[in-house]
Amino acid sequence: QVQLVESGGGLVQAGGSLRLSCAASGRTFSNYAMGWFRQAPGKEREFVAVIRSGGIKDYAHSVKDRFTISRDSVKNTVNLQMNSLKPEDTAVYYCAADVNNWGQISPLQYDYWGQGTQVTVSS
Fold first, then answer.
1. How many angstroms separate the CA atoms of 76 and 31, rounded?
2. Looking at CB atoms within 10 Å, which of 16, 82, 113, 117 has the fewest?
């Protein structure tokens, strides 16, 4: 069983930055692909970024060059540094774990989810 707890959300003005963190339990955390997804009101949950156990990263086109995903396998955390935030980044952000380390963009491929943290970007 893996438990994921997100933190770091909040309200920020457009152009600002936030850093989200996800604390994971479980001794095999380092073997999993860890992803960030987001869901805005009335929209489907969408892929934001993923980092696989070997360190390979992928980003959604909409956040590439603005967001950076990283992981600390000693502290069992995965982070999402978000810069140059835009109002359209407003959503609940979720951390997710893929035990198969595939790191695909479909949320259906992920096995464990956090409770989410709200990010609101004002214009």
1. 11
2. 16
